[in-house]
Each structure stands twice: as structure tokens, then as C-alpha cells.
Specification:
alpha/beta, 9 helices
Length: 240
């Protein structure tokens, strides 16, 4: 299962999903970043209901004061039927004002808490602050997407009961690999973050098989053990 893919950004989502099906993927969590992608993900989840689980989000890279109210209204209207809130979070490497980012994250976390929805969290250079906000909002289920932050903060993330996700960057990113080494396999989800490029190649949901192989390697498991455990983790996390 690919627990995090930007399906709306793929050149041909239907073809990518067909390839994923042929390789045995049971589900792909399609994540939104703004109103346009949220609408596309929602429509895709209706057309491909057997495989696409929709997540609705407000990515920090896509935040604009003018478009936010309409996106909030869309998320509010559809989140009850969605698999998760996401992608949301903080990114302290970009120019969007931190105060505005925190305002939007707090608002979306309130929605997730009111419906007990899991949260797919972007936390670049902001892992500690994101953790504080999750705990303040009393969020029960959250995954720190593509965790590559400090290991002392990771200890607190795990102690709070949250998950991290692994991507194909495990093949070459020491910080990401260190996080996956430290986290118990029962707290790891697998994803692609498609269509992100890894070592020059654009990814798609089928590439989650590569992520699983890398997790198996890092954790000293067989491929089957890694696949079964991460699938079980995902079904527990998304309550599906």
C-alpha cells in the first residue's frame, strides 16, 4: 500500500493506478495540497474507489491567504468521508510566514480532531513544533511523512504514539535511513510521495515496492514480513 502519493500531479493517474494494481497494490492514499488538487483527488477517489483513499490537505508550499477560505470550506465539507487529513504541516525552509503556516495547521487539526481523522504531516525543519501542535490539538493518529529530522525529537514522536513513513530516499539519505533504523517497524508506513524524483527518476505508486524492499533491508526482515507488517500498520492507522 502506498500511503502517500500526489496522484493529481501525475501525468496519467489512471495508467499509474492500473500499473499499481497489476503489481498487487491494494490501496493508494491520494493526498491533496490545495483546493485544485483536493478536488482532483476527490473525483479520482470516486472514479477509482476500489484503490484510491482520498486525503484532503493544505500543504505549506501551497498556502495563499486569498485561496485558503474556499479550500477550508471544501475540506470541512468532505473530510468526514475522506481517509485522512493531509498533506498539512509546517515547513520552516520556505518563505511563507511561519505564523500563517501555524494558523492554517491549527485550523485543520481542529477539523481532524473533531472527526478523529488521521493526519499526514509535513514537518521539514519543524518536527518539534509540529509535535507540539499535534499534542495540543489532541490528535490521536498522525504520521510524520518522510521523517528525516533529529533523532531526539523522533523519540518523542514515537513516545506520543505517532508513526513515521519511509520513502525510496532510504537508498541514499542518511538522516532518513537513521530514522527508519530507530523506529520500530510497527510504527512505519511506506509511501512514494509520487511523483517525486529519486535519483533522477520520477516515481509513481508502483515504486512503493522499492520502499518495502528498502525497509526490509534496513530492519533485517524478509520482503514478505516488511510488506505484511507495513500493510497491517496502514490499515490500523487509517482504520480501514
Amino acid at each position: 500500500m502506498d500511503t502517500h502519493a500526489h496522484l493529481a500531479a501525475l501525468p496519467d493517474p489512471a495508467a499509474a493506478l492500473a500499473r499499481a494494481r497489476r503489481l498487487g497494490l491494494g490501496a493508494v492514499v491520494g493526498v491533496g495540497e490545495d483546493l485544485s488538487s483536493n478536488r482532483k483527488i476527490w473525483e479520482l477517489s470516486r472514479a477509482e474507489a476500489d484503490v484510491v483513499w482520498p486525503a484532503l490537505g493544505a500543504h505549506p508550499w501551497a498556502l495563499e491567504p486569498e485561496g485558503w477560505p474556499e479550500n477550508l470550506e471544501f475540506i470541512s465539507r468532505h473530510l468526514k468521508e475522506a481517509a485522512a487529513l493531509g498533506e498539512v504541516g509546517l515547513d520552516y525552509r520556505i518563505k511563507v510566514k511561519k505564523e500563517f503556516q501555524r494558523e492554517i495547521l491549527a485550523e485543520t487539526l481542529k477539523l481532524a480532531r473533531s472527526l478523529d481523522k488521521p493526519v499526514l504531516l509535513h514537518s521539514r525543519f519543524s518536527q518539534g513544533r509540529c509535535l507540539e501542535m499535534l499534542e495540543k490539538a489532541d490528535i490521536r493518529r498522525a504520521v510524520f511523512h518522510w521523517y528525516s529530522g533529529p533523532l531526539d525529537v523522533l523519540e518523542k514522536v514515537l513516545a506520543a504514539g505517532y508513526f513515521i513513513s519511509a520513502t525510496p530516499a532510504l537508498a541514499y539519505s542518511p538522516p532518513h535511513r537513521a530514522a527508519v533504523v530507530k523506529a520500530p517497524v510497527e510504527r512505519i508506513l511506506v509511501e512514494t510521495d509520487a511523483p517525486v524524483k529519486y535519483q533522477g527518476r520520477e516515481s509513481e505508486p508502483a515504486d512503493v515496492l522499492r520502499t518495502i524492499r528498502l525497509v526490509a533491508e534496513v530492519k533485517g526482515l524478509s520482503y514478505q514480513e516488511a510488506e505484511e507488517t507495513t500493510t497491517r500498520n496502514a490499515r490500523l492507522f487509517f482504520d480501514r
